[in-house]
Design goal:
The structure holds two protein chains of two kinds. Chain A is an alpha+beta fold. Chain A folds into two domains: about 10-250, Alpha-Beta Plaits, CATH 3.30.70.20; about 255-295, no CATH class. In chain A, about 30% of the residues lie in helices and about 20% in strands. In chain A, strands 9-2-11-10 form a four-stranded mixed sheet. Chain A is elongated and about 105 Å long. By secondary structure, chain B is an all-alpha fold. Chain B has two domains: about 10-75, no CATH class; about 85-205, Up-down Bundle (Fumarate Reductase Cytochrome B subunit), CATH 1.20.950.20. Chain B contains nine helices and two strands. The chains are: A alpha+beta, B mainly alpha. Chains A and B meet through helix 3, helix 7, helix 8 and helix 9 of A and helix 1, helix 2, helix 6 and helix 8 of B. Bound molecules: protoporphyrin IX containing FE.
Chain lengths: ~300, ~210
């Protein structure tokens, strides 16, 4: 789809502007963890719509199934049992790509056009351009992309960019029976989240709040959390995710500087030769050896 | 170039072959690596059959280079131990670069600059090999923080090593009569006496 889209905000490993005459509304998927019952309809819908079937795994005594995201599992319910305020709570978080406004995967990707960010905020992998290096995994602050063992391409949630492009909500949002997954303009989602948060606070969840981490410029998948002060309760959701400073260093100014330094070394050598001339063996030594040979 | 039977043998055939294997690997690694390094160089992947092939081949060529570099290291490490004369030579290197080599201290088989280069390349090779393995996702799955460190080290050490090789190649071109040492192994006596007098004396027994 990216090849004909006119609404591309960013394109991996591309130093010129992407086609962006068409501007679309910034969207978001809101996941209200407090309303999730852990039915996994979203997981099933994801498999259905995208037509991917992860391998059937084994029960290891927890509800997480499969146990981790993989190339064919783009979204996954993660179940955490925690004790908060003297009560046992079962926190169920739908994990998957957060569609960061400042995506670490896209920043790290060396292959032009393998990762696209649309003006609506969706970050999409285009496997036809993926070379399988895994730099996206290195760049992601949420540990989301997975490299397929079968074809060495990277895969993750596309936020159903194909559905969204024709005005449909993502499959998971469509399937959710409790309304815990909502989809729409980001502005509307944030607004709706506020009413949910007010409601939760009234019910005693003092620290209820919206998870829309600013360290990555905000995300296009946002959570309503009962305990927004402790995101790590939710199966290790990072409190302040950011593109690692090492990744910024790697992909930042260091590279152009290195290229300038290398170019200068090469040109400097050429001009040294031109201006100083070669380092020849002296005439006297040549003659000395010729005399020796003549003997 | 006329070959004189009295030319001095500087490298054996197997030393030369070893050096060229490393050199060829280096060029292939540099070209494929730079393709991932910056979008400006990405088109270089076409020399390797496309992006996926460049990604697959690069680490394997790296393994070959690392092995042959190691053999070369054992061949030449002793000859590259630095001594006082080498530091003296290095302190005067500006004059040398300026084209005036009259006061340069006498040098053995390698001068201070060559020795420093040897250790610089060795250090780069160690850093590049270790970090390269850590980045190699087809085979390994190291903790992501370690991989993040490795990509920075790999890119930085590679850029440093490419810079060193530019200097290495230029020095060989600049000092006329040098490249033949790596092509057919010999140098003229005059070349040896001018650039590596200590070595010249040692192998000819002359002054
Ligand atoms: C044992 C040796 C080596 C190994 C195992 C290795 C491995 C790797 C791997 C796995 C990558 C990521 C791309 C890919 O998956 O193919 C990479 C990138 C790279 N390699 Fe190597 N490599 C080695 C030697 C070298 C050498 C000698 C050079 C320098 C001439 C070099 C220069 C680069 C560069 C510039 C990159 C791109 C780094 C970036 O994205 O910023 N590599 N290498």
């Amino acid at each position: 789809m990216a090849l004909q889209s006119l609404d591309i905000a960013r394109r991996s490993a591309t130093t010129t502007e992407a086609p962006q005459v068409r501007n679309t509304t910034e969207v978001a998927k809101l996941i209200d963890v407090s309303a999730c019952i852990g039915c996994k309809a979203c997981q099933a819908a994801c498999m259905e719509w995208n037509d991917i079937r992860p391998e059937v795994g084994n029960n290891v005594g927890i509800y997480d199934n499969p146990q981790d995201l993989d190339d064919k599992t783009w979204t996954l319910m993660r179940f955490s049992e925690v004790e908060e305020n003297g009560k046992l709570e079962w926190l169920i978080r739908k994990d998957g790509c957060m569609h960061c406004a400042d995506p670490g995967c896209l920043k790290a990707c060396p292959s032009p056009g393998a990762i696209i960010q649309y003006s609506n905020g969706i970050v999409d992998f285009h496997q036809e351009n993926c070379i399988g290096c895994g730099y996206c995994v290195t760049g992601c602050p949420f540990n989301v992309p997975r490299i397929s063992k079968a074809d060495s391409k990277a895969y993750k949630c596309s936020l159903c960019s194909d559905r969204v492009a024709v005005g449909q909500a993502p499959a998971c949002a469509k399937a959710c029976p409790t309304g815990a997954i909502k989809f729409g303009a980001k502005e509307d989602m944030v607004h709706y989240a506020q009413s949910r948060i007010t409601d939760l606070k009234e019910r005693g969840y003092q620290n209820a709040g919206l998870y829309d981490p600013q360290g990555v410029g905000g995300t296009h998948v946002v959570y309503v959390l009962q305990h927004a002060d402790k995101p790590s309760l939710y199966a290790g959701l990072p409190a302040d995710p950011q593109i690692s400073p090492l990744v910024s260093l790697w992909k930042g100014v260091a590279k152009p500087l290195a290229m300038v330094a290398l170019g200068a070394t090469a040109l400097g050598s050429l001009f040294h030769y031109v201006m100083k001339g070669p380092n020849e063996v002296s005439k006297e030594l040549e003659e000395e050896m010729e005399k020796e040979d003549a003997k | 170039m006329i070959r004189n039977p009295r030319d001095l043998q500087r490298y054996t055939a197997s030393e030369r072959a070893n050096h060229w294997v490393v050199g060829i690997c280096f060029i292939l690694l540099g070209l494929s690596g730079l393709a991932f390094f910056h979008p400006a160089f990405f088109p270089l992947v076409h020399l390797f059959g496309g992006g996926v092939w460049a990604r697959i081949l690069h680490p394997w060529i790296g393994v070959v280079m690392a092995l042959f570099f190691l053999i070369m290291f054992f061949r030449f490490a002793r000859l590259n131990l630095m001594g006082a004369a080498d530091w003296d030579w290095l302190s005067k290197v500006r004059k040398m670069v300026d084209g005036d080599d009259h006061d340069m201290p006498e040098q053995g088989k390698y001068n201070g600059g060559q020795k420093l280069l040897f250790w610089g390349l060795t250090l780069s090779m160690v850093l590049i090999t270790v970090s390269g393995v850590v980045m190699w996702r087809s085979w390994f799955d190291f903790p992501v923080e370690l991989v993040r460190l490795a990509v920075v080290v790999h890119a930085a050490a590679a850029a440093f090593m490419i810079g060193l090789i530019f200097v290495h190649v230029y020095a060989a071109i600049w000092t006329r009569g040098t490249i033949r040492a790596m092509l057919y192994g010999t140098v003229t006596r005059a070349w040896a006496k001018q650039h590596h007098r200590g070595w010249y004396r040692q192998i000819t027994g002359k002054n």
